Amino acid sequence: MKAAVYGQACNTYPDCEIVHVYAEEEFQRMLEDAKSGRFDMIIAESVFQFSEVVSEMLKTTRDLRQHDVAVYFEKERIDTSLLNWEFLVMVCYA
Questions:
Q1: pLDDT digit string (tens) for 9-31?
Q2: SS (H, E, C) 38-70
Q3: pTM of the entire structure?
Q4: For residue 50, which of 29, 69, 81, 71 has the smallest C-alpha distance?
């Protein structure tokens, strides 16, 4: 099921190729792979799946952006490669 959902999101990005589907317990490995340049976008089901704590989520996402890795949150349709992403995320947590 997750692979199909991830596949649909990739249709938004014509050059998207799924590198790996990470399970929840592989979060740290995913972050390490992102920082090592294995991929340039993470597609997450939702902002809350990524992190339930807004400050932690913002810190992690900003850190990923420093490594040229964007995060796309499917449910909220938020792409952190866009300029207004932090405002949109804050609205979700409000």
A1: 666 666 778 888 888 888 898 99
A2: CCCEEEECCHHHHCCCHHHHHHHHHHHHHCCCE
A3: 0.81
A4: 71
